[in-house]
Amino acid sequence: MSQKVVTRFAPSPTGYLHIGGARTALFNWLYARGRGGTFLLRIEDTDRARSTPEATAAILQGLDWLGLDHDGEVVSQAARADRHAEVAHALLDKGAAYKCFSTQEEIEAFREAARAEGRSTLFRSPWRDADPATHPEDAPFAIRLKAPETGETVIRDAVQGDVRIGNDQLDDMILLRSDGTPVYMLAVVVDDHDMGVTHVIRGDDHLNNAARQMGIYTAMGWDLPVYAHIPLIHGPDGKKLSKRHGAVGLEEYQVMGYPAAGMRNYLARLGWSHGDDEFFTDEQAQEWFDLDGIGKSPARLDFKKLENVCGQHIAVMEDAALLHEITRYLAAKGDVPLTEAQKDGLMRAMYCLKDRAKTLPELLEKAHFVLTSAPVDPDEKAAKALDDVSRGILKELTPHLQNASWSRDGLEAATNAVADAHGIKFGKMAGPLRAALAGRTVTPSVFDMMLVLGPEETLLRLEQAGRAEA
């Protein structure tokens, strides 16, 4: 029977959730969910000076918005320091690690001399093979792992292939500092082992760490996880993604109004592919996602593609789910929440809002007609469509609509009759009608707006627009 898949996402709470981190979380989530496995969350808060509760909250909030649910409790790495130290001492007892009494000054002097002589600055501790009888009494010491000195370490990576690192490039890394605190590199390995992690899927900036971390697994006699180091995300210009390219924090994308489903789809496609499929559901992504579909070169962020995918998701989303997404978007922006009446109106209008809206702000702009109430205050562009002539035509249209059957055909017939009487095409009436009903120039079709608003509200708005002063 094959082993159950366990993946993890392990961010450091020193700032916002970077979009690259969000994609790493997504890949881990997809891999576990598609195989009936477990997806765990660990907060790597060992850097006490830089870790903040606010950053942890932002990470949890970002994952929640993106819809990446994790199994079990959130693990705090800092809370497990005693266990990390226990493993360091176990390695010491096995002879796989040693006490190093070298001071910072001695290490720096070694490096300076090595630089001057053109030798490798990789520190070689004189305490590695020292007789314990020579250890100074009561002096502080670090615990270092004995790295192999010859041969090579091979990382068998599911994305990068076999990566070979000469062991002469590896130093005897510190496991426990002289103040007794464990280092991050030790903590990661112990936590992954104790949490039963089978697949370590993370950014390829951790690739060199894997060679050093493997030494701990081997020395403890623990099974290695499957490593999959994924390339980083670059900006459109091919350079490492940074703030100059625009948004890099996940919460910024929520505030810009991209729906979570579209974001999941786009991020999954960023560096991973399944044939030529660009648009897919969560179910398809979970079924299709595999490590061999991840490319070796960095992916490039493309806002046009992101908008395109998000537009497709908005178009097919259930109305209630879309309303929920809009509610969360407004809350994230700190905007006034929708009233119950506005929510009802949105639900009635959803069928004519979803097409061609690529983001939630675009959809809400089109929905202005149902979110506002009479008297409608037209914006500058729309006001230009309401001159004396068009107001006169709107006044004339009102009684025709009062007698029309309130269906698309009935409304079209009544409107076309007035247009014909004036010898104009319906298109000439569309601008004033949009201005009267919505106060905007970009709206759904005027007939959809009339159907959504109903006879009473439609006639009230037309009457008010017809009598307003030019």
UniProtKB/TrEMBL annotation:
Protein biosynthesis in keyword set: yes
All copies of domain Aminoacyl-tRNA synthetase class I anticodon-binding, residue ranges: 330-465
Main EC class the enzyme belongs to: ligase
Pfam families cross-referenced by the UniProt entry: Anticodon_2, tRNA-synt_1c
Record bears the keyword Nucleotide-binding: yes
UniProt keywords, alphabetically: Aminoacyl-tRNA synthetase, ATP-binding, Cytoplasm, Ligase, Nucleotide-binding, Protein biosynthesis
Record function comment: Catalyzes the attachment of glutamate to tRNA(Glu) in a two-step reaction: glutamate is first activated by ATP to form Glu-AMP and then transferred to the acceptor end of tRNA(Glu).
Protein name as it appears in the record: Glutamate--tRNA ligase
Organism whose genome encodes this protein: Roseivivax lentus
Lineage start: Bacteria, Pseudomonadati, Pseudomonadota, Alphaproteobacteria, Rhodobacterales
